[in-house]
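Morning F.,

Quick status update on the modeling queue. The single chain you submitted on Monday has been processed. Sequence for confirmation:
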Amino acid sequence: MTTPAPLAGLTVVEIGRRDAVSICGSLLAQLGATVLVEGPKASEVGHDPYRRLPRALAMAGKLCLPADREAGRTVHAVDAFVFAADVVIRSSDVDPARFSRDFSNAVIDCDITAFGASGPMAGQPASEMQLQALCAYAHTTGEPAAPPLLARIPLVSYLAGANAAAAIVAGLLARRTGGGEGAGGQAIEVAMFDCAFLGLNAVLAGVLTGVIADRTRIGNGHPSIAAWNLYCTADGFVQICAGNQNQWERLCRLMDRADLAAAYPSSAARLAHVHEIDAVIAQWTGQHTSAHVVCETQAAGIAAGPIAQIDGRPREPNLDMRAMITDGFDPVTQRRVNLPASPLALRGSPPVAETAIPIPGSPPPFKPAVAPQSAGQPGLATDRPPPLAGVTVIELGQYTTAPMCGRILGMLGADVIKIEKPGGDESRSYEPRHGERSEAYCLNNTNKRSIVLDLQSAAGLDELRRLVASADVLLENNKPGTIDKFGLSRGVLEQLNPRLVHCSISGFGVESLYRTRPGFDTVIQAMSGLMAAINPGGIPMKTGISASDVMGAQLGLLSILAALAQRAQSGMGQFIDLSMQDASCWMTGAVWNGWAAGEPFARVCLCSDGYIVVDDGLPDADRLHGIAAMTRGAAVANLAAEGWLAAPVQSLREMVDMPQTHARSLWRLEAEDGRQWPVPGAPFRFSATVLKNPDLAPRLGNSVT
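Structure tokens below.
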């Protein structure tokens, strides 16, 4: 039996000009909200650097506001909808004159800007491509000897949109738990810069503390693991990720090269000879088809996958099985288009699969309420407790995806109890590390308690069942079926705790053609179309950030918050089957249907001290004359004087050291046991709700229940 969508009855007005605003609105619409949108106009997006999403994708599942605010004739009609909305999503930095009015009437006022409301860059607009340059996304994407790569997919906008949607649902939960419907409004601030920084988690280890000076492009490899790369086959490419010693030894047996396992018996040895190892693997894969290599590696328990190409849409059987590709009719172009389905797999209250695309300027089929649905002004940050105060989360997660999700749940006030096996989360062993904790572990595991349970023992399983029976959320990113082996199948969990929200984040989903396959971020990028979309026409390329891991964590967060909101209405929990492949595929929608082919793009230009990005069209050779002899700063200033959007391509170290990064408190170092440990900040800010200050990641087994 299904229940109404979590946000059914909620009215959202989307009046911001950014892709992140559109993405946030789309996610809220998928959760059942009625979303009214002001634009884009009837034509395709064209030359607007803040809107790279195709109009049909940005508008699908929404309704149109009455008319253009710029026209002046109907501004009052538009304002009536804004005044009566539960949620307003805007972007005040792009067009500040339009947002000079007070939005405190709304229950939630969410402002998505490039840099937020504080720091030396506050209020400055910046495009998606400028942010990819400034935030080291370009610097870390591509081959080591080649120029940096920009992603045609607006990665920063997708991260900001997902964070904004999660913050809005958290704000609604805070309203329900901290004062009721008359508790006043809530202003939410989401800075794309902040979201981009926190998306770097997987590559920041060592850089924050200075143990590693910096990181640069590594192609499709891994900074601390070998064998891990994209290899040519007889008919294409295959990404192979042998993530640990056992998988490396199995790969050597597959290739009939037991000598390699003996020659390179440790991760450090393999990294020191990574080029020799890659050459041997490439020789083996080149003798076989992609299908053969994938079949052999999967049978051996090694993560591997072929490249899913985008031909109007991603071509991958599991995406079809999970119904991730839908179609809609574009009334402007009069053609059918492929559209991504919702990646939010709430099984008890399925997301709204609405693909209708409104005609720009068509009026909504209802009138706004006469009076606003909120009261009062936004409160002070100390007025309300954290949104998840009193919520208990049991985390059975390793590596990145579930731990990152759990970290933000803890920041929102939940009591997150991390269950670790004897020896701890695998990421505790990553380098650089000191004692039982690594910097990578610390970045994803703040605001938690740690309990060690041997789940191979009866006592450990009994304790796990006891914890789950009284919890609100069970969060895990194990291979599908693992939780069943613990005696906690879906049926058992429903009997044990009917109010439990169980979120399973896996590579390909529980209901999947690839249920038993191991999945790492890079394999997911390959099999979702993401790698094909990053470098169309060239060698498929992964993103510099762990995009599939990060988006899996962000959508897991949103799904859990939505399920808790729905539980507040129904009293019942539910199961969330979140697939990282679905999440990554959803992001590629920006380049489906050939939408990106004729779109103005950005250019990466070499300067005397690195590279810059020039956005909003392509300056001709005359305008770019002499840039190679200039510093990045001089080149950006010269182009800005001519009206071009430009930004330096910054390294991780430069991003980390930016005054804006420090002013926004995006990270700090915390001393313990004579060591400096990195602690990340929050991806969003509330005006009337307290967030828990990030604390150190726990020592192994530091909690007693």
